[in-house]
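User: Can you help me understand a structure? I only have the sequence.
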Amino acid sequence: MSSPASSRRTNTLVITRLPTHFFEPVIQQALRSHFETYGPLHTWAPIKGLARVIMVYYSDEDAEIAKQSNDGLVLGEMREHPDVVLRVYRADPTPLETTETQEHNHYLRPPVNDKNFLISPPGSPPVGWEQIREDPPNATPLAHDLITALRRLEIQEEEESRGPGPNVLLEPEDGVGISVFVEDCDATEPEALDDPADDWSYGETAPSRLRWRPTPTSMPPVSVMG
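Assistant: Let's start by predicting it. Here is the structure, written out as tokens:
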């Protein structure tokens, strides 16, 4: 940061030693509006951790006038806060990129912030294989195919809960008008399986025992000792 006695022209100023309450949004807005009266600001950067504000003007002349007019300015006593003396210093100039400087800028620019979703080549790429760019991941909350599958599941649940019979699509009000009914003629009712256990009574042989019986086997040969 430049010294207070330096006369070097710059478009960047730093306000230092600001009290903590000066970083409240209302006071910051009022402070910025005050410095904007000297010229349009390119950047206004409050840094609460360092108790300072860095501001960049478009014009060096505007920054110099703001510096000369506000360095040492005493702000009146606020409620529960003593007087505050503004200290405004010159900082290193901040180069601003304009349309003219962009045309003559030959420095290397950072790459575009875009992932290259490229399909990796196979282990032994065939003749004529070319790397292609695949589509990025789906940015929507739910993919179209997932929504379709959920809709089908919802329809199946509605059919199961509704049971057999026609489905009412349009019903007239007050019983007067046109009604639309749809019935699935191909639908089949699930066949109920008879469970013998339902007719079992206490004291009888359990149906599970009647259903399974061990297969009889022949007796293994027995040697007779004479």
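Now, to help you interpret it: The mean pLDDT is 77. The helical segments are 25-36, 60-70, 99-103, 144-162, 207-211. Let me know which part you'd like to focus on.
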